[in-house]
Amino acid sequence: MRRRRQETLWIHRWSRPIIGAIAAVGAAGTGYLTATKLMQTTAACGTGCDKVLNSKWAEIFGQPLTLFGCLAYLSMLVLAVAPLLVNAESNKDLRVKLEGWTWPLLFVGSTGMMIFSGFLMFVLITDLKEVCPYCIASALMSTAMFVLTVIGRRWDDRGQLLFSGAIIAMVALVSTFGVYAADGTLGAGNTAVEVPGGGPAVTTASSEAEIGLAKHLAEIDAKMYGAYWCPHCHDQKQLFGQEAVAEMPYIECAPDGLKSQTALCQAVPELTGFPTWEVNGEFLAGTQSLETLALASGYEGPSNFVNEAGPAGGASGSP
C-alpha cells in the first residue's frame, strides 16, 4: 500500500507535463529574443534589457546567447514529453524505457541550465547592474525545472543523485568560464569603459580619409544617433578610428550616457534602433560602411579608408 501511494502522488503524475510547459514557455521567450536579435529589431522591453541583450555577455562565438538557450529549452521539452506521447496500454515497455532514459537526461539538463542561469544572474548584478525581466524569468524557470526533476519521481539513491548533481554543477561552471574565456569575454581589456557613460575605448587609428569624412559629416549637419552601451555603435566608431571619432557628429541617446541628448533623440520618430545615421534627410539604420556614408553625404575627399574592412552590423537597442 505504501508503494502504491507513492506512485500516485500528484507531483509524480504531473511533473513531466509541468516541465514540458515551462520548457515550451522558455523556448518561446528565447526564440523571440533570438529572432529580434537576428532580424535587428527591438525586443519589447526597457532600456535595461537592451543593455543586457546587447552586452558582451549576450553572444558566444558570434551567435546570440538566446539561440543556445532556445535549443536547451527545446531539448528539455522533448525529453519531458517524449514518454507521454507513447500509449501506456499498447506500448508499456517502450514508455517505461523512455522514462528511464529521459529522467537522468532531464536532471543533467536542468542542473546545467540552473547553474548557467545562476552565473548570468551574478553577471547581471555585479557587472551589468541592470534589471532584465527575461533573464530573471529564465533563471526562475531553470530552477523550477530542476526542482521538478528532483521531486517529480522516486530516485533509487538520493545520495548518488546529490553527488551526481555536484559533479554536473562543477562541470557546467567550468565549461561556462571556459566558453567565455575562449570567446574573449572574460578578461577582455579592450571592452572596459574609460569614462562612465562613454562606452568602450576606440582602439583603431584614423587616416586622413576617416578624419576628412568625419569633418565633412559634421559640416553638413549629419548625425549619428547611438548609445554608449550599444555594440554596433562601438563598431561604427571603430571604423572611424580614435582621431576621427573626436570629429564625427555623434548624438548620445542613453539617458545615463556621457553628454546625453535624450530629448533630441526622442524627438526623431524615424529613430527605432542604434546606431541610426541622419544624412541629408535620409535615415540609415545600423552600422554603415565608410563608403556608404561618403556616397550618402556627397563626400569628395580622400577615400582610402584604412578601417573599411572593420566589423559591421545592424541596428540594436531602442531609444
What does this structure look like?
The chain folds into two domains: 2-187, VKOR domain (de novo design (two linked rop proteins), Up-down Bundle); 190-319, Glutaredoxin. A hairpin with a 2-residue loop joins β5 (276-279) and β6 (282-285). Mean pLDDT is 84; it is low at 1-6, 188-194 and 309-315. The protein has twelve helices and six strands. The strands form two sheets. The chain has a four-stranded mixed sheet with strand order 4-3-5-6, covered by helices on one side. A two-stranded antiparallel ribbon has the order 1-2. It has 319 residues and is mainly alpha-helical. α8 (208-219) packs across α12 (290-297). Helix content is 56%, strand content 6%. The longest helix has 37 residues, at 92-128. It has helices spanning 2-7, 10-38, 47-53, 65-81, 92-128, 133-151, 158-182, 208-219, 231-240, 242-245, 262-266, 290-297, and strands at residues 59-60, 63-64, 223-226, 250-252, 276-279, 282-285. Belongs to the VKOR family. The chain crosses the membrane at residues 65-85, 105-124, 131-155, 161-182. It is a multi-pass membrane protein.
